[in-house]
Amino acid sequence: MDSRRDFLQKLTLGIGATALTDLPATARELYSGPKADKQLRVAIMGLGSYGTRVAEAMKDCKMATLVGAVSGTPAKLEDWKKKYNIPAKNTYNYETVSKIKDNPDIDLVYITTPNSLHYKHVLQIAAAGKHVLCEKPVADNAKQTREMIAVCEKAGVKFYIGYRMHFEPHTRELIRMREAGELGKIMHVNNYMGFKSGDPNQWRLKKALAGGGAMMDVGIYALNGARYATGEEPIWVTAQETKTDPVKFKEVDETIMFQLGFPSGVVASCGTTYNFNNYERLYVIGEKGFVELSPAFSYGPIKGRTHNGPMNQPVITHQTLQMDGIADIILNNKPDPNVSGAEGLKDMIVVDALYESIRKGGAKIMLAGK
Ligand code: NDP
């Protein structure tokens, strides 16, 4: 399929006529036109490295506008007010954030705080009646995630996870090919994602703030990728952990290999690490063809090849696509491409089982009833 030609055909329909998430590919051209009339008004909570990346990416958005900020650091709020033209009345700290409920100018809060604070912050924002977009991993475990989903439902707010790959053109094309049967019956998946972690004092190495190590941070990409590469939910898992630096990784996992068994009989062989670089790939093999993405999960540019040759999808900043995609879903009531809180829960159930398998010396953990 000529995805560029297909994209250009869809482009002529205009931004409002086609769900961004339906597009097999979105191109830079989409972002050269005017902003849409309706805008999703977003506040970012936790102005760190990723929050800043999102803020920069949102400058190009057509349907989402950055209008607010929540931070524990007053100097950052001052900086963001100037840099992103945020009015003082739309700025909060973690103590005052519940007052956001009285602010009619903010629709959604994007939570980009450390992992183990997501639970508390999602509950706070839902209680304030605002839609929530929460970074991965959604929480420390499935129990917390279930509660977050229930609280958001009760509050009548939408709850999404920052699974940006679901808006990324190569990834969307992989899913389209699999759903269209172009790969045939899926036979095997091999996914991995990791990097060498730096500063030994960072929160990512502290269990109380990170919830876990490489698995929680980036292993989640390999796991989520195995689910969208197969279109199935795993029924059993096994996992093995190795630790070469027990001082640095005293509190969190360093390297984990894990296997996911699916109802069709497919086994996904996956890995994650905080101890070496150049470890990033999604490889799905079917009876009729294959897709290999490498890099597959980082900011990219994502590159891919299939049994038909190199992939030709456009390269667009993931966070721009994600924020316009979320805006399109909320403002135009479009279906979401598997980025709901319920999708986060499916991953957390597996993560819990992976850690259980490790605790039990690599035992096979059945997922039914979990
Ligand atoms: P940073 O440490 O750079 O930023 C986190 C921010 O959270 C801080 O700057 C701070 O902002 C706020 N914060 C509130 N309480 C604390 C606390 N106790 N300790 C430290 N910071 C605190 O982390 P990242 O931006 O890299 O990661 C944030 C989240 O985003 C994580 O959940 C991570 O998994 C996710 N992420 C997702 C990526 C993706 O590609 N989807 C990529 C990178 C990260 P302030 O001073 O404003 O309060």
Q: How does this model look, in words?
A:
The chain is an alpha/beta fold. The chain folds into 2 domains: 4-164, Rossmann fold, CATH 3.40.50; 166-310 and 341-366, Dihydrodipicolinate Reductase, domain 2 (2-Layer Sandwich). It is 32% helix and 20% strand. The strands form 2 sheets. Strands 14-13-12-11-7-10-9-8-15 form a 9-stranded mixed β-sheet. Strands 3-2-1-4-5-6 form a 6-stranded parallel β-sheet, with helices on both faces. A hairpin with a 3-residue loop joins strand 11 (279-286) and strand 12. Residues 1-28 have low confidence and may be disordered. Bound molecules: NADPH dihydro-nicotinamide-adenine-dinucleotide phosphate.
What's the short story on this structure?
This protein has 370 residues and is an alpha/beta fold. Helices cover 32% and strands 20% of the residues. It has two domains: 4-164, Rossmann fold (3-Layer(aba) Sandwich); 166-310 and 341-366, Dihydrodipicolinate Reductase, domain 2 (2-Layer Sandwich).
End-to-end distance: 40 Å
Helix content: 25-40%
**What ligands can be seen in this structure?**
NADPH dihydro-nicotinamide-adenine-dinucleotide phosphate
Mean pLDDT figure: 92
Order of helices and strands: HEHEHEEHEHEHEHHEEEEEEEHHE
Q: Any idea how many domains?
A: 2
List segments where confidence is low: pLDDT < 50 over at least 5 consecutive residues: 1-28
Global shape: globular
CATH fold title of the largest domain: Dihydrodipicolinate Reductase, domain 2
Q: Tell me about the biggest sheet? A: 9 strands, mixed
Task: Output the structural class.
Answer: alpha/beta
Number of strands: 15
CATH class division of the largest domain = Alpha Beta
Domain GFO/IDH/MocA-like oxidoreductase: 172-291
Protein name: Glucose--fructose oxidoreductase
Domain Gfo/Idh/MocA-like oxidoreductase N-terminal: 40-163
Pfam families: GFO_IDH_MocA (PF01408), GFO_IDH_MocA_C3 (PF22725)
